[in-house]
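Design review, sub-item: ligand-bound model
Attendees: FS, YL, KQ
YL presented the inputs for the glutamine complex:
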Amino acid sequence: LHSKLPATGTTIFTVMSQLAAETGAINLSQGFPDYDCDPELTELVVSSFKAGHNQYAPMAGVMKLRERIAEKNELLYQAQYNPDSEITVTAGGTQALFSAIGSTIRPDDEVIVFEPAYDSYAPAVRLFGGVVKTFKLDPPYKIDWDNVKKAINSHTRMIILNSPNNPTGSILKQKDIDQLIRITKGTDILILSDEVYEHLIYDGEKHLSMALFPELAERSFICASFGKLLHTTGWKIGYCLAPAALMTEFRKVHQYEVFSVNTPLQHAIADYLKDEEVYLRLLGFFQEKRDFFRKLMNETKFDLLPCSGSYFQMASYKNVSNEPDFDLAMRLTRDFGVASIPESAFYSSKTDHGLLRFCFAKKQETLEKAVERLLKF
Ligand code: PMP
Ligand code: GLN
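KQ shared the predicted structure:
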């Protein structure tokens, strides 16, 4: 068989979650909550089934959900996205990313990806013949925009950004945005902005969505996920925002990739989001979790990197061990009963920072139990 992705194996999230299940370890690897969503939301799902919303949704998504999404972007970012032509409901953030790449990247187009990077970007670019231009960032993961500018040439088609960042927990600051505006001005470079953790940001920092900056929004696909907002990663519903001309292209791919996504859940989410408080509640909820986990982890031998956003905490074990991070992640799962993700999984080249990523979207008692075990390391 002539593989289209010869260098790609099974995603690390599957590998580590499977190992956690096999060994009975506490799973702080793959990012998902171990608590349920709001029962009110579950009720709305049941009502939605009973109301007979059980056939295909419109290709671009149930209109009342697109309207809610438009209201949210107006409320949080003072941005106007037209529900008719600029918003599409997708099968999670993953499909939003994939369709954005699939609808714009041609063979030999160059796409700038900063590493550590979420693992779906590069394979998607390659499937469409694109060339991934990697910028390797080392902790504290700051982007050197002058270097990025130097790499831009007539083949550069897209820059992929992810803030708040998985796995680093870092966020884009205003000076990053200023540089991004500077280096893309007057070009036709697109921005693919993965903002699935937009509501998970701490210490009073503000999420700088591309939607806030008209010069960037006019060239941006913004990808979001209800999995993070509603604690429902298994529902696989998200959306993409883009100016109408880009969204027209996006939908040409979306309509043949999935056509449309789960109808009853779209109705339920739309009804739930009538309450705008949902967005605000989440802020306090995750700040508490982050603070709680960091406090517990400070008692262990791990050194914690800063975490400004997302539900991931990077922890260094350099003081304790020289093992490669993959080996240690395996050993901690098997021998200590706590699963994590090795940082090197987010790089395409050999990397050894001695860091593990822990997901803290877990019940208090899960975090306590996990850290109790990590104290023995
Ligand atoms: N982007 C990032 C950075 C992610 O961490 C994830 C996974 N949670 C996704 C995209 C995909 O989101 P979804 O689960 O909605 O497909
Ligand atoms: N985004 C989640 C993580 O980083 C996993 C999603 C997935 O398994 N594809 O852990």
